[in-house]
Amino acid sequence: MRNLAENNPGCNYIGVDIRDSYVRDALRVEPHLPNLHYVQANLTFNAAPVLDTLPKLVQSLSIMYPDPWFKPKHHKRRLMNVEFLGAIAPFVQQGAPLHFQTDSFDLFTEAEELLMNNPYFLRQVPDPTESPFATTTYFQRRTVHLESRNEFMLLALRS
Ligand SMILES: C[S@@+](CC[C@H](N)C(=O)[O-])C[C@H]1O[C@@H](n2cnc3c(N)ncnc32)[C@H](O)[C@@H]1O
Asked: Could you report the per-residue pLDDT of 6-42, keeping only the tens digit for each?
């Protein structure tokens, strides 16, 4: 995110994670950039209150490597579901891209199904094969690339 914010000073970036320590570590990095902000929040329950603090509608949204919650009894904890999309939709500008990226094929197929069958976002085909970002996330560098895992991506536009 830092790279993106540095290279696109005209855009504001907000990173959200549930883990306090991740957000604190990110906030410690200097120099502070005026267009980069981090927020600690549980997006499953608080996506709308977080987005409601913004002065403008969101222009672009990226969900990068959300936790896969592999066990079937934990699937309900997965971030991407119709309730989450419904919660964020009012705060996202019409036509804005939602980029989803994962190393889990199971999560990918579930998100694919969701983005094909929801009233808020329209899945674009074909699926992207390359990340639209000229940078990589921490998880992507530390695990996906090191372990040569597959990456799956989806793009949808706010309808
Ligand atoms: C696999 S890591 C990916 C981290 C980062 N997006 C990246 O690509 O480097 C999944 C992240 O999702 C965060 N997370 C899990 N559940 C969440 C939730 N309900 N709301 C916000 N963040 C959550 C975790 O704390 C963890 O940092």
From this structure: 999 999 999 999 999 999 999 999 999 999 999 999 9
Q: Are 16 and 43 in contact (CB under 8 A)?
A: yes
Tell me, in angstroms, the distance from the centre of ligand 1 to residue 129's CA: 22
CB within 8 Å of 109: residues ≥ 6 apart: none
Ordered by where they begin, the domains of the chain are: 1-40 (no CATH), 56-158 (3.40.50.150)
Cα 96 to Cα 82: distance, rounded to the nearest angstrom = 18
CB atoms under 10 Å from CB of 25, counted, come to 12
Is 67 tagged catalytic? Answer: yes
- What DSSP string runs through 38-56? EEE--HHHHHHHHHHTSSS
User: Is the CB–ligand 1 distance for residue 64 below 6 Å?
Assistant: yes
> Residue 51: exposed, middle, or buried by beta-carbon count in 10 A (0-12, 13-18, 19+)?
buried
Ligand 1 within 6 A of CB of 139: yes
